[in-house]
Design goal:
Shape: globular
Strand order of the largest sheet: 1-2
Order of helices and strands: EEHHEEHHHHHHHHH
Largest sheet: 2 strands, antiparallel
Number of domains: 1
Strand content: 5-15%
Radius of gyration: 20 Å
Distance between the termini: 57 Å
């Protein structure tokens, strides 16, 4: 670096380092403990689940009736597993969430505030696969029971910043486009799809709050 008239200039042909906005984030020690609580509790056999193997792949074997489980206790713990990328933890957490949302009914709504921190932690990993999984879970969540979509609106400011960052990040590398679309793992498309479900389930305040956080979003209702 050279100085001219008291100022400093970068060497010729140099460029600033990348900001790293899309770099995967490794949680620090304190957040890692929360992020992997699902793994620790599963390893301790604290969950009433096991893996079933059959010709069609892995399934969860629930050892108790899901409809009798305490969702205030179990649903946030399964959501904490959204950060997991290693098997079998990733599969168990993901499938467990969908099973609980399928059977939770009106017990889901009171638990929504407890789900925000694990959702935010998963999105903030900036890992495209983790984000894709979390977006699919969010779509299922807002459609799982009445008023859940509306209950999520006050938390948009915590979960939508990553949406805004990745909204236009679509994979565009040959055959992988087709594969990712088939698997619903194109981040940009998943984000748009999730925002539409947020708007449709979030009540009259949903669109204006989405628009505040993501100015480029256009109402799905105005497109129909």
């Amino acid at each position: 670096m050279s100085s001219v008239a008291g100022g400093y200039f970068a060497p010729k042909d140099s460029c600033p380092p990348k900001a790293g906005a899309f770099r995967k984030r490794v949680p620090n020690d304190s957040s890692m403990n929360v992020c992997t609580s699902f793994r620790r509790l599963y390893d301790r056999n604290d969950f009433p689940i096991s893996i079933m193997h059959d010709a069609k792949g892995n399934k969860i074997n629930w050892k108790v009736d899901i409809e009798k489980l305490d969702l205030h206790h179990y649903l946030p713990l399964f959501f904490s597993g959204l950060c997991e990328t290693e098997e079998p933890y990733a599969f168990l957490a993901r499938q467990g969430i969908h099973d609980l949302l399928d059977k939770g009914g009106n017990r889901i709504l009171p638990v929504v505030p407890q789900l925000i921190i694990p959702i935010k932690r998963a999105l903030n990993t900036r890992d495209p696969h983790v984000i894709a999984v979390t977006l699919k879970v969010l779509q299922h969540l807002v459609e799982s029971a009445d008023m859940v979509g509306e209950a999520l609106v006050p938390y948009y400011r915590q979960i939508l910043p990553i949406f805004n960052l990745f909204k236009n990040k679509n994979v565009n590398i040959g055959d992988k486009i087709y594969y990712s679309q088939q698997k619903r793992e194109n981040i940009g498309d998943l984000i748009e799809e999730t925002l539409e479900k947020f708007e449709l389930t979030g009540g009259e305040d949903a669109f204006i709050n989405i628009k505040y956080m993501i100015p480029t979003y256009e109402s799905v209702l105005s497109r129909n």
